[in-house]
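Q: Got a minute? One more chain.
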Amino acid sequence: MTYGYVLENGQIKIIDTYLSAEVKATRKVMGNFYKHKKKLQKSGKGLTTNEKIFLDAEQATVIASGLVATAETALDEVKSSAQTALEKAEELYNSTKEMPFGIVELNDAELAEAYAAGGVSYASIVTKTDTHFDKKVTKAEAIVTAYTTLKSDIQRGISEMLAKDSELAGDFKEWES
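A: Always. Here it is, folded:
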């Protein structure tokens, strides 16, 4: 075993112990997808057009759902990190209001003036941190929106196809059961 891979029965297998729960769930559903695909291929004649459409729809739905779940988890983590960073920035800024150990020559006003002369201010610590993480949260939200839109577009496309083709719709119902 090296670098997260192992050779098993002549096949390279990825060791997934480091994967997120969302990725593991997607891989599990994809495993079911591949079993279903093998079942449909057992006829020996190849896949029909409807079977190919079904498999494409299933695979696209599984992957899109996995992307949405992963992006939502990442967004939650970014928001949590942003909150933690903001709290630490506030704590750091508040520590500038206390006289450092060993400094006895300055009064509170002189200490504040010294920090200000060095560029230390609420804006340079807290506001800058907040602005930085707001950009990250906004970007993560945009990714969630993009993947959610993709998933909706896929589902809408499948629904439109099924609405136009009753035979395909019947096949889908049979294969989904």
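A: The chain has five helices and two strands.
Q: Perfect, thanks.
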